[in-house]
Amino acid sequence: MPTIKKVYRVLVAVPIWLACAALFLLMLLTFSDVILRSSFDAPIEAATELTRILVAVMVFAVMPHISVQGGHIAVDLTDGFFEKLGLTRFRDGLILILSGAMLFWPVAQVWTLAERTRGYGDVTEYLGMPQYLTMWFIASGVTLAAVAMVISGLLALFAPRFLKEFQA
Fold it and tell me: What is the pLDDT of residues 63-77, one digit of tens each?
């Protein structure tokens, strides 16, 4: 079990570090673009394009982790009610399963759009980078989030100790 836990922790950490790297690159890009634009009247031509790509990487790299860890904004109007009835675990598991299941329609749509973009051969304006690569990354992030949410929901309902052990 310790080996599985180590592998799990590495698999969780990789997308987070990828998002951190994207944020750092975005910071460097913005700083450089402002300095070049202000001082030398020479902006980075592809800055907008790179910003869009890096923001997509940041958001969709951590989406599975945020979804499973409960990092979304939540309204806790019914928490007291569910706690009194002892149904908090049931509510959380059900919400994760339903939310993950609802993501499967957007997953299908994003994969379809990515394949359509690949078929058309669309590329970015300045860099000439195939647009489907970014779309595949987005689709992968949403797919992993959906699968992770359903699995976490099932574990919350049927094996809460196992789920808590891996989240600790």
Answer: 999 988 888 888 888
Q: How far apart are CA 110 and CA 104, in angstroms?
A: 10
Domain extent listing, the chain? 2-167
* Residues 6+ positions from 140 with CB-CB distance below 8 Å: 60
Note the pTM of the prediction, 2 decimals. Answer: 0.91
pLDDT per residue as tens digits for the range 41-67: 999 999 999 999 999 999 999 999 998
The 3-state secondary structure of the chain, one letter per residue: CHHHHHHHHHHHHHHHHHHHHHHHHHHHHHHHHHHHHHHHCCCCCCHHHHHHHHHHHHHHHHHHHHHHHCCCCCCCCCHHHHHHHCCHHHHHHHHHHHHHHHCHHHHHHHHHHHHHHHHHCCECCCCCCEHHHHHHHHHHHHHHHHHHHHHHHHHHHHCHHHHHHHHC
Q: Are 19 and 60 in contact (CB under 8 A)?
A: no
